[in-house]
Amino acid sequence: MSVLTRRDKAHIDEWQTEMLVNALRVGNIKLHITGLAEKDLKDVFVDSVSSIEEAVMGSVKVHGDPDVAVVPEGPYVIPRCH
Predict the structure, then answer these.
(1) What is the secondary structure of the chain as a DSSP string?
(2) Does the pLDDT at position 28 exceed 60?
(3) Cα–Cα distance between 58 and 72 in angstroms, integer?
(4) pLDDT tens-digit readout, 61-73
(5) In angstroms, what CA-CA distances link 32 with 4, 5, 56, 65?
(6) Does the pLDDT at position 19 exceed 70?
């Protein structure tokens, strides 16, 4: 059961948190971002990486699978599978 369905009202921006939790249930999320310190990311539940290339190559190495999803520009991008 979703956290959101157990309440009368959702907290502001809680939908994005729920979507993050759904993604974390099935995979790892790597985040490349500038302007935030590591301590600012400690409660976000993502792995910080210094480059996109590092994240892609690390994923391929760990999983032995060259298929990865890269989502640029945050929540306004809708990924598609080809």
Answers:
(1) --GGGGSSSPPTTHHHHHHHHHHHHHS--EE--SS--HHHHTTTT-EE-S-HHHHHHHHHHHHS-------TTGGG------
(2) yes
(3) 18
(4) 998 988 877 777 6
(5) 28, 31, 11, 21
(6) yes
Residue 34 tokens, joined: 């500038």
One-letter amino acid at 69 equals A
Distance CA 4, CA 80 (A): 25
Owner of token pair 């999320």:
29
The domain segmentation of the chain, as residue ranges, is: 3-71
Q: pTM of this prediction? A: 0.56
- Label residue 61 left, alpha or beta by phi (over 0 means left) and psi (-120 to 50 means alpha): alpha
CA dihedral (47, 42, 26, 30) in degrees, to 10, reads -20
